[in-house]
Amino acid sequence: MQSYTIGQAARLLGVSPDTARRWADAGRVATHRDESGRRLIDGPSLAAFAVEVGQSGADEDDVPYTSARNAFPGIVTAVTLGDVAAQVEIQAGPHRLVSLLTREAVEELGLAVGMRATARVKATSVHIDRV
User: Which end of the chain is more exposed for a tag (fewer CB within 10 A), N or C?
Assistant: First the structure.
């Protein structure tokens, strides 16, 4: 099972390492220490917490005045395999992305809940909102 440092978790959640550390100190996400004393978060625990954070939404002041880029690094929160097709969900900061792809592609990539992945988006119609 993959584990993440506080800094890695912060990048995946789209927050500062200090914020991730405060969340861990408050018990919002469970941590453990490795042999060198670093605090780690298990992948499945981080995936569940990423969903919780994403569903709670960002404060108005936290929303950047920017157009979304096409690459969304995040953490895999769900993988549903069918006979031929598959569905993969990624939580990238406050963004939940869902992709439908072949089962073969998911198996070749070795996608599983708790691992890092980047969703890349190509669209012919992109809407930009300024909040």
Answer: C
Residue showing tokens 């991730």: 20
Query: What CA–CA distances, in Å, run from 111 to 13, 48, 66, 82?
Result: 19, 16, 30, 14
Q: Are 39 and 73 in contact (CB under 8 A)?
A: no
Q: What is the pLDDT of residue 64?
A: 47
The answer to whether 82 touches 103, Cβ cutoff 8 Å, is yes
Answer whether residue 67 shows pLDDT above 60: no
Instruction: Check: pTM over 0.90? Answer yes or no.
Output: no
- Render 29-62 in DSSP notation, one character per residue: S--EE-TTS-EEEEHHHHHHHHHHHHHH---GGG
Structure tokens at 114: 């708790």
Task: Tell me the three state secondary structure of residue 77.
Answer: strand
